[in-house]
Amino acid sequence: MKIQILGTGCAKCLKLTHNAEEAVKESGIDAEVEKVTDINKIMDYGVMMTPGLVVDGVVKSVGKVLSVEEIKKLLG
Amino acid sequence: MKDRYKLLLVLAVFALAYFIPFEAGRVQRAILEAFYMLQDYAQKHVLLCLVPAFFIAGAITVFISQASVMKYLGPLANKFLSYSVASVSGTILAVCSCTVLPLFAGIYRMGAGIGPATAFLYSGPAINILAIVLSAKVLGWQIGLARALGSVVFAYVIGLIMAFIFRNDELERKKVQMAALPDEEPTLRLWQQAVYVGSMIGVLVFANWARPQVNQGLWHEIYSLKWYVTGAFGLLFTYTFVKWLKARLWVSIIGVLVVALLAVLFPKYPLLSFSAGIAFLVYAGKTSSEETKNWIDSTWTFTLMILPLLFGGVLVAGFLLGMPGGDNGIIPNAWIARLVGGNSVGANLLASVVGALMYFATLTEVPIVQGLLGSGMGKGPALALLLAGPALSLPNMIVIRSILGTKKAFVFFGLVIGLSTIVGVIFGWLVG
Question: Above 0.85 for ipTM, yes or no?
Answer without folding.
Answer: no
